[in-house]
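Weekly structure sync, notes
Attendees: PL (lead), two postdocs, one rotation student
Agenda item 3: pending single-chain targets
PL asked that the sequence for the first pending target be pasted directly into the notes so everyone works from the same version. It is reproduced below exactly as submitted, 193 residues in total.
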Amino acid sequence: MKSLTEKQGKTKYIPRLLKEYRERIIPTLMKKFGYKNPMQVPKLEKIVINVAAGEAISDPKILDIISEDLSLITGQKPMIVRAKRSVSAFKLRKGMPIACKVTLRGYRMYEFLDRFLNFAAPRIRDFRGFDPNSFDTRGNYNLGISEQVIFPEIDASKVKKIFGMDIAIVTTAKKDDEAKALLEELGMVFKKE
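Predicted structure, written out during the meeting:
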């Protein structure tokens, strides 16, 4: 039976990395870990990108600059994160904006990961692979980037503020070795131990 888009003569765009996951990675991981059902194979759930800005306490306009660059990188408008409690040592009051956060799911998540692994990661200075010890024992991977200019969407000559970001890749894997195998198949390069 044909899907609705096929009946109408429209072709639906599917990200390259998602197509590769469905066609090549699922059978590979089923064979490697002995899964009996394709639904047991770990998959990406979401990618969370977080940029904290301590200078936003004295200059809240910095978050607008960060938000603009982050929306260029991810293709989604960032959420402004506000302080949950006051800290007098940092002159921080409850409710002040201090960070930006983006949660990517679905096609945008696969598009971002594809661009990150194939274009941005090789541009990281002295890149020899990602740390294999950054898994959190529940199949999720966390990494930090020191500059946003590694992304091809950012024009280095127009950058007003250099900032780093934390990227959390959340998978449905139960164990770290399953998550590592999934990320390696997706194209992530890990340092040799």
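Discussion points:
- Strands lie at 44-52, 79-82, 97-104, 141-145, 165-171.
- The first strand starts at residue 44 and ends at 52.
Action: rotation student to compare against the earlier draft before next sync.
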